[in-house]
Design goal:
The structure is a homotetramer.
Chain A (H helix, E strand, L loop, with lengths): L15 H25 L2 H8 L6 H4 L3 H20 L8 H30 L3 H27 L9 H22 L5 H15 L14
Helix pairs in contact in A: 1-2, 1-4, 1-5, 4-5, 4-6, 5-6, 5-7, 5-8, 6-7, 7-8
Chain B binds a DNA duplex through helix 1 and helix 3.
DNA sequence: CATGAATGAGTCTTCATTCAT
DNA sequence: AATGAATGAAGACTCATTCAT
């Protein structure tokens, strides 16, 4: 982390055994960081969990941060994949519900790592970039959705789609944090319901035909 | 070896000089943590910034964590004080606007420390407690406001006040983070407007007499 | 901050090199404590004496006290082993002479460490325990010997074996201190002779057949 | 303790107030060392116990060791004074009993400090000198007594008075340690009786007229 | 490739002593 | 004289990284 490096730069593993060790380290790294947090995330702990020797760590990773970045990247990919709402779902409100449900679920698995890593984000530009990418994915998706609804006359046209997406996305994100980390005992399904109704009301979502704004 | 602590337990300074040094250390501590983050927050950095010798740190603080707690406590107090909305403000929507404006402003000054410290919250119960207290203040205040509006027939009675406060409070909190840390160039006043409109619409806030409260 | 220990808990070395370093540290530790006393016994001094880097200390020992305990344990074992009087020696007086001679000799090698460590004994329960064990070994052995002589009608039956062993054992112990530490120039062999005669007379040891046991 | 000194050398207090403070510090020092041991013996603790400010310490004492020396000197004087056996006591055995009783008693009050200080004796020549002086007092007195008894035909003439005094004096000294520090629950009066009988038997003390060696 | 020992700068904390008031 | 704040060298321990085998 800032020392000049004289070590051979790790190369992509060429043998099957190498691949296995490499992957085992990533899995172990994630497990360690989830179970013991940032402070417990040491090469020693990771290699021990992976069942390999200490030195092997630097055969595959340039540094602790290198492994961390890979873990975060994997967690981010996973989270985004799991958050995708199928195109087949047409009803706007149903899409909101589904997006929220999936976000809270995805978050339960991957966001632990992401949150834990946020501290590091103040120091490492690569990590900061990764986190921004994830955020951008959600904000962009939210903004697109809102814009489409506005164009369809289903949402308040005075709202700036991006600002609105940042705000409402933040709402869901923060609730995920509360659920997953502060362990306030919340009923997830009830929360999904509230989040969705709040989101819909906030943008003035109107059912195409009906007078009722929000389905009871 | 289990040696008992023999060092003077820090006491409140009795002389003016002592008071000055003590305060300088708290100021320096906050500055250091804001500029260099948790990782840069060392007794050495703090004393150097304050222009005193290393040992002086322990004249006033039991430990690094002791200072940290005081800084966080001060930041929390400051933040909450600055967030209070005057009782003289009666109009519900105006209160929402004011609360949001103040929150974003307070956050700009104090939340930097709080955010930076959140990582520590995974480890230290005192800090975690402090952060939870702050959150509880905002959640409680939000929930009370919503409940009152519901009782006055001005807000959607189907919403659980606490869940709603957590969600909408989270929205504002997260936006504050985005503004203050990720430095996405956002127009704060415009954001206050959006947050307030979203919050109001979300809970279905209705002007007592008029048909629609939110300006089109 | 209550960070959990993340450093590798020292394990027994698995390689020859590791064994060598480990042993070198123990040897160096004993040397340091003998030459510079408790106050000079620092990880830095020990590693420098052993010719390894500072950090290596903690590869093998959990703490300074950990090494200290091992040194003391080794010294204690060594001392007790060297103090054993062969069972083949039958004559009671000859056994007393032999025990004293061996004690003074053993003490010359090991007691330096033990004495130096006594100060620590006021603080650390493990060390205190070790020292008590050693004392108990000698007191127990002495008391047994006296009891047997009493039963054989060879020693004053009015003496409490344990009290007597504590007293006479203390005599030999203290003389060892004087010889080894205060460096009063004493003729060891002459001292052994005196100690043995005093011990024998004190318990009223009588040769089975003869009138007086102690040579005039 | 080895640093060049630039402080004004403390002078003997001239005012009554100064005298009082000076004495209070010595008393407090002894109390601290007895209650909290060597490790707790800090200028801070001493001044606090004496109820004066930290800096006052160096008004009266050059250093921590300076105070320590004065404490030890006082304890030594006290111990020796209390150990004196009145000249009016004529009977040799009674004198032995009295000397042992007084030694154990004196030791209970003063030896705590002395023992605790022995560690320092390895470092500081002044202290070592003080301890040697005390020892010499007892050894000399013991040797004189033995010599007189030998000259009176009451003790084994083959014993070297000095070696014997060292040995038997060591016996009593060590027993005092056991009683006072290791807190083996021993009946002091019974121990005095044993020590005296052992001492008398050891030197072959004979009652002037009688055949019995040791009075029952 | 794997192993595990070695490295040493860095961290927090202590405390005898000095100094300004 | 007294006060109590200031000093800073030194101590124990950590841990990311390197290296010999």
């Amino acid at each position: 982390m800032g020392r000049a490096r004289t070590n051979p730069a790790p190369t992509a593993p060429t043998t099957a055994r190498g691949r296995r060790t490499h992957d085992a380290l990533i899995v172990a790294g994630r497990q360690v960081i989830e179970e013991h947090g940032w402070a417990g995330f040491t090469p020693e702990a990771v290699t021990q969990t992976a069942g390999v020797s200490y030195g092997t760590f630097y055969t595959y990773f340039e540094s602790k941060d290198d492994l961390l970045r890979r873990i975060v990247q994997a967690a981010a990919d996973e989270m985004i994949t799991e958050s995708l709402v199928p195109d087949t779902l047409d009803d706007p409100y149903a899409r909101i519900v589904e997006a929220n449900r999936r976000y809270l679920a995805a978050t339960g698995k991957a966001a632990k790592v992401l949150r834990m890593v946020e501290h590091g984000a103040y120091l490492d530009d690569n990590l900061r970039g990764l986190l921004l990418e994830i955020r951008e994915f959600y904000v962009g998706r939210g903004a697109d959705g809102i814009r489409r609804l506005q164009e369809a006359g289903l949402a308040d046209p005075d709202l700036d789609p991006r600002l609105t997406a940042i705000a409402l996305g933040g709402m869901v994100e923060q609730v995920a944090v509360v659920i997953n980390e502060l362990r306030e005992p919340l009923d997830t399904e009830k929360m999904v319901d509230h989040l969705s109704r709040l989101w819909a009301s906030a943008i003035g979502l109107r059912a195409p035909g009906a007078g009722r704004r929000i389905p009871a």
